[in-house]
Amino acid sequence: KTDEDELVLTPDGTREFLTFEIPLSDSGSAGLGVSVKGNRSKENHADLGIFVKSIINGGAAFKDGRLRVNDQLIAVNGESLLGKTNQDAMETLRKSMSTEGNKRGMIQLIVARRVAKRNEVVKIWSEGLN
């Protein structure tokens, strides 16, 4: 199921923003079940945000199926990660998942996902035909 009504594009049209409510109840101790990485600018080493590095088999995100590797985490349970250092964003993520998320049995994530450009989609599709 996709939340197309939740779809918002960035002004340059390269990324879409999606909101997911991911239930934690049946995943037990596996929690959300993602590992994340902080990306930095190659030029000035500025923090560029927190991204999903991998999705762990059996975790809530895996069972939910909507979160993808390389999605950028923008906010968790209503708390923005933008403008925070990677270290602060990781700490925010950790806290909200352990306390508030578990109380509600849900984690709300806002993510930014890169949008494939039309020519990339056509290229991938045509390569699949060969």
From TrEMBL:
Transmembrane segments: none annotated. Pfam families: PDZ. InterPro entries: PAR3, PDZ, PDZ_sf. It comes from the Eukaryota. Residues 21-96 form the PDZ domain. PANTHER family: PARTITIONING DEFECTIVE 3 HOMOLOG, PARTITIONING DEFECTIVE 3 RELATED. This is Partitioning defective 3. It comes from Xenoophorus captivus.
